[in-house]
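Bug #77: duplicate submission created two jobs. Keeping one. Sequence:
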Amino acid sequence: MNKIYTSSGAFKNFSNLQKLFNYLNKNKIKNVELSGGSYNKNYKKVLTKNKNINFLFHNYFPVPKNSFVINLASDNKKIIKQSFYHIKKAIRLSKLFNLKYFSIHSGFLYDPDPKFLGKKMKLCKTFDRKKALSRFIKNINEIGGYAKKYNVTILLENNNLEKYEYNLFKKSTVLMATSNETIFIMKKTKDNVKLLVDVGHLKVASNTLKFSKINFLKNCSKWIEGYQLSDNYGLKDDNLPVKTTSWFWPHIKKNLKYYSLELYNQKMVTIKKNLKLIENKIN
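Kept job's structure:
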């Protein structure tokens, strides 16, 4: 059975996890992809109390007490240590609640400062791409091996790359934006490491790097086990509502258990309409 989740990114104003669940229950939202938000010390108790809602954990959930950016391609030992600690904790939590997937963002060629996320990038030193790619694959394989012991599948999310950043650095500063690099990585990782395709990221990156987003979906199809769905104008990841005419409908798989609607700054009526649209399109 298809599962259509709503990303908790749509409800950033909820600092309290229980209040978020109360709001979801009030609006009859039964599936949520928990990602980021505010630190909640008692998150396990809250999750246990709200098992009537189907949830999955994505990237920055459970939210760390001290903010940092996960980057398994980093050459900074502290960042790698923090990333491993957070991801392994999330894997154990996924097992505790009998969840099949835990999804994370792919790597960067620099270590983003969490204070500047969502703001204009500044020029900084970048890692050697080949070395970063090698580190990323090595670290993902360690994560994949750890997850296998808990019967959890790791989903890697393809990266976004805006023209502004590409023009600033005169090169791609992210991993897994193109199908060639994504395929290269997937062929070298464990069999419980798959793909979560963010179609919004894909639209922007394909526009920046001038490749076919449709070919990306076709060429990477064998590894795709989930989608994050939103739309934009191809310039930045705006997380706008999907439409009946959105480009990806004819090209995505219709038989998966992980579809996440990732909208920001939208009213509940719009979210519900989009959830219904997705349901109609994949069933």
